[in-house]
Amino acid sequence: MSFIDPRTDFAFKKIFASAESKPILISFLNGLIYQGNPTIQDLQIIDPYQAGKLMGLKDSYLDVKATLDNGTIVVIEMQVLNVKAFEKRIAYNAAKAYANQLMTGKGYLQLDPVIALTITDFTLFNNTNKVISRFSFREEEEHFDYLFPVMTLIFVELPKFNKSIAELESLADKWIYFIKEAPSLEMVPESLETNSAIQQAFSIANSTNLSRQELDELEAQMFYFQDQQRFREEALEAGLQQGLQEGLQQGLQEGLQQGLQQGLQEGLKQGKSNLVLRLLTQKVGTLDESIQARVLQLSSAQLDSLTESLFDFNTVDNLVNWLP
Fold it and tell me: Rounded to an integer, what distance in angstroms lies between the CA atom of residue 288 and that of residue 297?
């Protein structure tokens, strides 16, 4: 028996946001948000696409979005790669989910609180060993809460979770273990079989229950994440090597530091350019030399923006119009 990786976008949505996922999502949220208490009795899984309501407002694609039985809106995101400005994106998505309620006819008094639950496959907060961190509106000195629940940001950092199957205690422990370890398991652990929601999640994650098309989509996402990670590592290594050589040639500590920084920046930019050219070729076909040259002239920030918007391009003409 083998299980798909819940950390991929496809698998996460299939497990937690498909038609049969309601009891799974209820248990998952009760464990991670409400310390295992059965606070949530029912919820509605809704389209996670958040369209901007104003001209120029960036659209957002979340992994899972739900409205709880008390009206609270929960937006959930599983993030594998630590991309630039990720922390700002989380706050942006939570604020937009809160503000968009006014577009549905609600007045200020009817606004429901928003909880943004984010699971990261990388360390986000280096100043704490906590696996789960929570942030909310609170007075800085006396630490009392704001008059009305507005937004709560909850982060689960998978690398900090190192419990074995025998050490699992809480419902949160069991769900985090499932997300992190499911791909390496060959059978459902006995201690997790007693939880019907987790047992159902394992059933959905069983690769034998997926169609050929679903397996192909999952494989494509895995290759994409692996490619991005490899390009980042190669860019970092190239930048460090170039910077070290320049610094050693100058023979001074100041020159070493300056060379390292400059080489790192140039190496990272080259890695981003290579990644964009490769993905664009896969998306729109062969690129002529003029388009390649224009891509290579983009700044690091423009390359980041192009990567985020990459799948908006359906033709080469759309790409040419976008490039400066």
Answer: 15
